[in-house]
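User: Predict the complex.
Assistant: Input components as received:
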Amino acid sequence: MEQGAATRQALLDAAAALIAETGWCAVTTRAIAARAEVPHGAVSYHFASKDDLLREAAISATRRALAAPLALAAQAGSVAELLSGTFAWYAAGGLTDPAVAQLLETAREAARDQALRAPIGADLHEYRKALADLVRRDQERGALVGGVPADGVAAAIAALLDGLILHLVLDPDLDTRPAAAAVLGLLAGEPR
Amino acid sequence: MEQGAATRQALLDAAAALIAETGWCAVTTRAIAARAEVPHGAVSYHFASKDDLLREAAISATRRALAAPLALAAQAGSVAELLSGTFAWYAAGGLTDPAVAQLLETAREAARDQALRAPIGADLHEYRKALADLVRRDQERGALVGGVPADGVAAAIAALLDGLILHLVLDPDLDTRPAAAAVLGLLAGEPR
DNA sequence: TGTACGATTGGCCATATGGACAACCCGCAA
DNA sequence: TTGCGGGTTGTCCATATGGCCAATCGTACA
């Protein structure tokens, strides 16, 4: 019984890795099996179909990948701190993390697959909520301009950070420092 | 000679449409040929490979899709007008436009294909430049807070708009109105 | 009229893929 | 010992795909 679960998990891990490395559509059941070091027939036994396997692998991998930013949003002392940290991570080459490729692949697939969209959308929603709490705290402290809806600011920041990832993937030479300066300046409300 | 070019173009158009409808990896040379109403052997004659055909189709389709927002950025009277128009388009269901699906597919593929990344990245760069000009004009008029780098604001706005598309695709129920209000408020610098 | 050449057409092939399955292994309870 | 059942393994198969190619067409030009 325990062995069965281990094989199943190995297949899930291999599938998630391959999605990031080769892209969703290039993943084959045979490649997954080879990566997991199990015979290819094992796939049919443990999963109803290739789609099922990829979906399940992508969902858990995405949850794992989003855990770090979520924790950061929940623990950051301020929005500025969160943004600075994230921008620094981008600049330091965080994009080379396979998790980024995996997220992009999953997002694209989720745009076509309702069963995938639901859980991913829920994770995103949770992230925005944590961010909105942080924004609200900052606004009360006066560290962030008031008079704008906190949930709107949170949605905008989340979209900005993900959009920046997209742009950086398409144009690795893009300098994010001016954007970082602009966003931090606007949020602080310092200029007049 | 003219006929040859027409067949070639029909294949390109069919390929672009199929990328948007079924997703990049689900496109087959036979489906393209059927869509273009030419025999499937025509693909081999007019293009060196399926990859070549898809790349060329995606590049021209992307350029076509980006022409509208680019013109909008160049002609808009102000950043606020541009943003309001774009947000309204999102809310009115602009996401159902096949061009959006096509752009997402192309972006994902470009992340893995240097030959695709280069032209797409150049188009993005051009868009950011037009946006930066608009921002600069607004700052000089005082319609937009100064003291922040215009190119940074432009990069942030571009990322924000694309990131919002991504989030809307993953979560169609997301209400963009608070985000729109927040962004417009922050850029105007009205609150204090 | 003939002919050269680009364009067209449909058949063909090697290959890869997802999935099904029968045989087998092995620990455990009767 | 004998069954039993979950797990494993390798093989087999129908299908689809990308690409190649020989035969054919049609037309502009000599």
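Residues 62 and 103 of chain A are 6 Å apart (CA to CA).
Let me know if you want any component modeled separately.
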